[in-house]
Structure formats: structure tokens, C-alpha cells
Amino acid sequence: xxxxxxxxxxxxxxxxxxxxxxxxxxxxxxxxxxxxxxxxxxxxxxxxxxxxxxxxxxxxxxxxxxxxxxxxxxxxxxxxxxxxxxxxxxxxxxxxxxxxxxxxxxxxxxxxxxxxxxxxxxxxxxxxxxxxxxxxxxxxxxxxxxxxxxxxxxxxxxxxxxxxxxxxxxxxxxxxxxxxxxxxxxxxxxxxxxxxxxxxxxxxxxxxxxxxxxxxxxxxxxxxxxxxxxxxxxxxxxxxxxxxxxxxxxxxxxxxxx
Amino acid sequence: xxxxxxxxxxxxxxxxxxxxxxxxxxxxxxxxxxxxxxxxxxxxxxxxxxxxxxxxxxxxxxxxxxxxxxxxxxxxxxxxxxxxxxxxxxxxxxxxxxxxxxxxxxxxxxxxxxxxxxxxxxxxxxxxxxxxxxxxxxxxxxxxxxxxxxxxxxxxxxxxxxxxxxxxxxxxxxxxxxxxxxxxxxxxxxxxxxxxxxxxxxxxxxxxxxxxxxxxxxxxxxxxxxxxxxxxxxxxxxxxxxxxxxxxxxxxxxxxxxxxxxxxxxxxxxxxxxxxxxx
Lengths: 258, 279
Known about the structure:
The structure holds 2 protein chains of 2 kinds. Chain A is of the alpha/beta class. Helices cover 34% and strands 17% of the residues of chain A. Chain A has a single domain, classed as Methylesterase CheB, C-terminal domain (Rossmann fold, 3-Layer(aba) Sandwich), CATH 3.40.50. In chain A, the strands form 2 sheets. A 7-stranded parallel sheet of chain A has the order 3-4-2-1-7-8-9, sandwiched between helices. Chain A is globular, with a radius of gyration of 17 Å.
């Protein structure tokens, strides 16, 4: 349990770091909302609060996820769910591969598992959706949310599909979710990220220039007009800031007697 | 579009969804009220497109007044397409570890709960026949969808799916070639009718019906994922009541009993294959 007083300075530090990162990326026009008029200040990406992060990746995605995971500290508490396109007909070694580099828990999704801190990976040949214990009321906190698997038809030739996870996360969390589309060579995730944006959630996309395959990031940018487009380093700093921001938000709420 | 608009809209969608399920239950006694909302939302959005309905309330109006619309809607609510020998390791474990124990019984009753279009039924029947147990087995294949049951009874599958089935059959320890068990005709294959000589097909709802016979093995794979916790508990209670002491329960590879309130009634027999044994 971290003391409340720690969060103010931590948050400030992270935020200024984030601004530095963004500032250094200015030339690359890595922000979607980067000003077309030179000289306008760069808008920092919003910090939520969010209760969970969903990620989607395809070609090159394992490397991208590895980079993100190895950049997150053990104290990172935001639950994350990821869909990576993998062969449907054999067991996945992703959890072992990613877990070796992670400071947080990494596991494969199982039906009705509670959404907990750590990274959950969609298993081969199942869609992963999110559901609320009470049976569908909105604006759940992460503590009321569990994973729901499905064998329904392939979406974008994929099972698991990024769109299915993202759409469902928007339905359960409303604005309190961040969706991140990483490298990939197809359009999965574009509609799902759009849905997250529609519900008022936060959207980020890996810079197509940095991605091993640029099609998926480009499709997501075109469809969702995300608040944040950045290389992995920027995305890592952003989600660390999201985590710190949420911790502050949660404890603030507790102080007010929730 | 502001976020709150979208949110309110979707809040309405969930209300309409629950009202629709209640209406279907009241009017037709088909109970989907315990199904997981996450999948229902997706499926019913697709059903709205199919019916050209602008909202679930419009769809509800249609279904309440037009009984012809019900079977079409049921396909969206219930059909799960499975594959033969899906997760070969599971069927290999059944063949190697479970059937030798079941072979000690003079007669066997096996319940395939939520058999849908029959892929797992034929997988199980082939397994039993190859292990010399089909003659003393009775298989109960149940589902809520009559149309799916008819397809299961017909045992006809598209030829282009069979290559995958054959590979899984071999990986599951198949003793010959899957083609020993079907005849190809045009773009389909038809499974040997002898495989269903001891199969009873029956309309049965895990949401509203009770257990109906004593069983030694219940196979219910990737059905419980579509149920909420309450309905999942109800189904597992039925399996528990139906199973003989030391009877087996086989679930899908990403399902588990851990979250069920009946977990204590079962031992884990093969953790990775999700095979449990009644205490």
C-alpha cells in the first residue's frame, strides 16, 4: 500500500517526463493532434482516469509487447488485456515468452477470471470479452469485471480478434479504458479503437514509422483519430502515467468516503 | 459525438436486451436470461442487422408477434460451431485415461450437454467405437436448439472442414483414418450412421430443465463460457446430480470449476485437459 502523499510528486515527475518525451518527439509529428500551425503548444495526451488498458497487435506484436512489458515496473497496477494474432491450432507460448521479461504478472485468459493487475493474454482460438458480475450494468470498477471467452465466428479472419475485445471493453468501462493498437499487417483493431473513442475512452496507436508492420496502426489512426500516436517509448511512459494518475484518483475517492 | 451520448445509448441497449430476453422467456419459455451479456450484445447486434431492426425494442416487437422469427433469432442466441476433436490433447486424455476406467462399468451413460451441431458427439462416438465401448454405451446428446439437433442427427459436415478434423483426430490418438468413419458426397461428408446407433437426441435446456438420467461422463465443452455465473452454477449442479460417484466431467480448455460454488464436489482429474471427477 503506497502512502497518498507519495502520489503528488510522483505524478508531477511522471508528467514532466512525459512532456519531455513528447517534446522530443515533436519533430516526428508523433501526436495525432500535433498542431499543423508551427509554434502552437503540443497538447499532452489525456491521463484518464482509466481502470484498464486493452492492447492489440499482430505482425511484429510479440516484440512490441515485450518492449512494453520490460518497460513497466513491478508496481504497475492497471489491469491489461492483450490480443495478439497467433495460430489458432496450437497452444501459445506467448505467456512464457512475455512472462520472462515482465516485472508484472502475465497469464493466459481463462473464462470468468477476474480482471486483476497484470497482463492477460487472449488464448488461441477464443475471443476475449469483458463482462460485469452484476450482469451488464455500466461504469463498473475493475474489481467487478471478469473475462468472458467466446467461440463465436472469426472477426477480421481472427480469433481472438482485437475489435471484439476493444468493443467489449468500451461497453463495460465506458470512458474509463485505454485502448492501444500496436504493429500489425491487417485492419483488426480499427473499429474497436473507434468504439473506445466513441465511449469517451483513451486511444493510442504505435507510430506507423516505428511499427514493424504499419498497416494496423494506420488503419486505427484513420478510423479512431486517437488522442496519442507515439513510438513504444512514449506509449510506455504514457501508461505509467495513467497508472499513477489512476492510483491518485482511486485514493482520492477513498478519502471522500466511497 | 460526446462520450455521454454514446454511453447513454448503450445503457439503453442493455435495458432493451434484458427486456427482450424476458419477452422471449414469457412468450416462448426459452430462457436466455442467464446468458453472458458480453456475447449477447455482439450476437444481438448481428441479429438486429439480419432483421433490419433499428433497435432491440423493434426486434422484440417482431419476435413477440411473429413466431416464425423465433427460430432465426435462436440461431443467433444459441448456435456454437465446434470442431471435431477440438483440443486433441483433451480427447487423447479421454481415450487414454478416462475410457479405461469407464470400461470397468457393465454399461455406460454419457451426456453431451449442449451438443450443438454434433461435432463433439461424433468425436466421442468414434472414440468409444475404437475403444470397443460404443455397444454398451448410451449417449444423450442434448441442446436447446432444435435445428442444431437436426444437424447433429444428420451428421453432415462441409468437406472443407474435414482436413482440420482429420489432423485433430490423428493428434487425439485416432486408430485409423477419420475417413473410415465418413462417406464423401459432393461437397459434404456424411458420418457413418452406425456411430449414432446408441445416441438419443433430445431438446434440453441447462437453464430450465432438470437432470434426466444417471451418467458416467458429462461432456460439456465451451458451453459454460456463454453463461453467467448463476447459470453456470445451475448447469454444474445438474451435472453433479446426474453423475454417478466418481463420474467424470469434461469441460472446455479455458473453462474451469474454480469459480463455481460446486467446485468442492469435484476433484481435478486432468488439470490441463479440464477433466474433473465427482467426489
